[in-house]
Amino acid sequence: MKNSIFLKIFSGYLLIVIVILAITFPFSFRAIRHHHIDTLTDSLKNLCVTLNFKISSLLEDNRLEDLDSFIKDLGKEIETRITVINPEGAVLADSEKKPSLMENHRKRFEIIEAIKYGFGTSLRYSASVKEEMLYVAVPIENNGVTYGILRASLFLKEINSLLNNLKMNIIKVAAIIVIILLIGAFLFSRNLSKPLNELGHASRKVAQGDFSIKVLLKGRNEIKELADSFNYMTDQINTLFSQLSNQKEELNSIISSINEGLCVIDKEGVISISNKSFNNIVQNDSVKGKTYWEVLRITRFDELIQAVQREKNSIVNEIELNNRTFLCSATYCANKEEIVVTLHDITKIKNLEKTKKDFVTNVSHELRTPLTAIKGFVETLHDTNDNEEDQHYLNIIKRHTDRVIRIVNDLLLLSKLEGKSDSLELDKVNLNNLIENILKIFEQNLKEKNLVLKFNPDSSLPVIKADPFKLEQVFINLIDNAIKYTERGEVVISLSHKKGMVTIEIQDTGICIPKEHLSRIFERFYVVDTSRSRKLGGTGLGLSIVKHIVHLHNGRIDVKNIPGTGTNFIVTLPV
Ligand code: ADP
After folding, report:
1. From its phi and psi, is residue 32 left (phi > 0), alpha (psi between -120 and 50) or beta?
2. Which residues fall within 8 angstroms of residue 418, CB to CB, at 6 or more apart?
3. C-alpha separations of 234 from 150, 205, 209, 353 in Å
4. DSSP state of 517
5. For the CA atoms of the chain, what is the radius of gyration?
6. In order of start, what are the domains of the chain with their CATH numbers?
7. How far apart are CA 56 and CA 69, in angstroms?
8. CA distances (Å), 363 to each of 352, 407, 415, 419, in order?
9. Using a 6 Å cutoff on CB, does residue 539 contact ligand 1?
């Protein structure tokens, strides 16, 4: 099949030549034969017309013997058979045979035609001479009297042999033409198929990765244009490939040089790319091609990858591996359905954080007892001393001692809460009742500040599973803040539920938290207005505690400021 184009073009040409010859040859032979017969018919007719006068005068004088000898002499001389027939069909004279021995010619086709139309011709096999002959017959007339019919005839074997000669010559010429045509077709087909074969060969080379191949053709035609385009295309591919491989190398060196562990997991869970740091972290040098669960047998990591596959987004979580802590970030790449994982070693930061927390907890613990003692002694002094000036200073000491005790208590509570979900003591909690009970604590405060408290419970609120004491802490802090930072107006507490989540909103008409502070108010010790917070006995730890407790319950807390209206805290908890 290698030369299929060549074969197709060549055999196509061959077929066309054969068909043309097969059609034209029989037609042209027949046309030539007809032309010859027509020419002979005309000359025989002319002969008959020429002889008419002579023969009619011999017949008029009834000189039949003279007529016969004249006809025989003439026939021999001009090599044409001549026959004279009377109107009844009897042969009167013939150049070949004795007339008396010849049968009646009245029924001969050419004779019938000549009598009827004045001229008759026929091409047929002669029974008397046993050959194919051309007959021409005309009536012999003189002065309006018809004396008989003059018939001249010729053997067609001469025409046939002439035509056969002609046929042979034409066939020879045709054969030469066919050979020339076929050589031309062969060269043309080869010229056409050769560059195509070259292009095919070059394409196979390109497919095998050889972009240096070029197709060099001569001339200016469409195939040359195709070859030029092909060469341009391979040049472009070559350039693109080298650019791509450069970029790939660059990317590979970047990936391998970064300190973070990096790997790419495909949709089957197989690691397709990993860098050196990742291999070092998992202590495995050949992770490529392995499934991630073979390489990292950590439930938390497995859960993280499954969550990313399910949610098709980005998730960051901490994982513990070989006594080290890593910040693991997994990002879903939609176009290739892959997950890019980075592992950042945060062990040092974690240790530092722990040291800091331990320090705060230890200091708080150490301070707690002396502070309680100081508070006790200050109260005793206050109760036993009547001096007004002393009372004033003792009050200041007492206020500051109370503040420090609150800070210490809050810090201890925070360190207890931080990151420990097992610190929850879960029970069935009816939030309507829980909040209603808390409100009693604030009755005095509300009265003092002349504030209205509106409570909108939700009668269909489902019971949730939570730590009731910690939730009390949450709502005490939030309602306390709402009252603390509201000078006039109201505090509205509303409960509702939707899609397996309960929502508790605490809205006040107090001072608005400026927008730029909203994102930071849940940080430890973050206060918007330090002097106001201190004056109101704040520690800056209340919202931090709230956030931790809500997160331990897998809930969320949001805050909205409504300029000119107040602040709105929204706690959402799962049922
Ligand atoms: P604090 O003990 O100082 O109240 P929190 O952590 O409870 O500390 O609150 C942090 C800061 O957030 C407060 O100092 C206050 O500026 C602001 N804040 C909290 N609740 C409200 C509120 N309802 N209205 C206005 N500001 C508030």
Report:
1. alpha
2. 357, 548
3. 89, 11, 10, 59
4. G
5. 62
6. 5-162 (3.30.450.20), 209-257 (no CATH), 260-345 (3.30.450.20), 352-418 (1.10.287.130), 427-574 (3.30.565.10)
7. 15
8. 16, 12, 12, 20
9. yes
Query: Is the shortest distance between the CB of 528 and ligand 1 below 6 Å?
Result: yes
- Number of neighbouring beta carbons within 10 Å of residue 410: 20
Give the pLDDT of residue 143. Answer: 82
CA 271/CA 292 separation, integer angstroms = 6
Question: Residue ranges of the chain with pLDDT lower than 50?
Answer: 1
Q: List beta partners, residue 472.
A: none
Tokens 């469409």 — which residue? 222
Residue whose pair of structure tokens reads 């509570």 in the numeric block: 413
Asked if residue 267 lies in contact with residue 250, where contact means CB atoms within 8 angstroms, the answer is no
Ligand 1 centre to CA of 528 (Å) is 7
Which letter, b or e, does each residue of 175-192 get, where b requires 16 or more Cβ atoms within 10 Å of its Cβ?
eeebeebeeebeeebeeb
> Which atom of ligand 1 is the closest one to the Cα of 510?
24
Q: What separation in Å is there between the alpha carbon of 485 and the centre of ligand 1?
A: 7
- Contact residues for 574 (Cβ-Cβ < 8 A; gap 6+): 464, 500, 501, 553, 554, 555
Does the beta carbon of 534 sit less than 6 angstroms from any atom of ligand 1?
no
CA distance 385 to 506: 44
Nearest CA to ligand 1 atom 24: 485
Question: What's the pLDDT at 84?
Answer: 94
Strands 501-508 vs 566-574: parallel, antiparallel or unpaired: antiparallel
pTM higher than the cut 0.90: no
**Side chain identity, residue 410:** D
pLDDT at residue 159 in the model: 73
CB-ligand 1 contact for 44 (6 Å cutoff):
no
Residues ≥6 apart with Cβ < 8 Å to 196: 5, 223
Whose CA is closest to 342, among 270, 272, 259, 268? 259
CA angle 353, 359, 365 (to 5 degrees): 135
Q: Give the C-alpha separation, 437 to 429, whole Å.
A: 13
Q: CA dist 330 to 207, 285, 344, 557, Å?
A: 37, 21, 11, 25
- Alpha-carbon distance 196 to 203, whole Å? 10
481 lines ligand 1 (CB under 6 A): yes
Contact 268, 290 (CB under 8 A): no
Is 478 near ligand 1, meaning CB less than 6 Å away? no
Contact between 114 and 102 (Cβ < 8 Å): no
Between CA 341 and CA 272 the distance in angstroms is 11
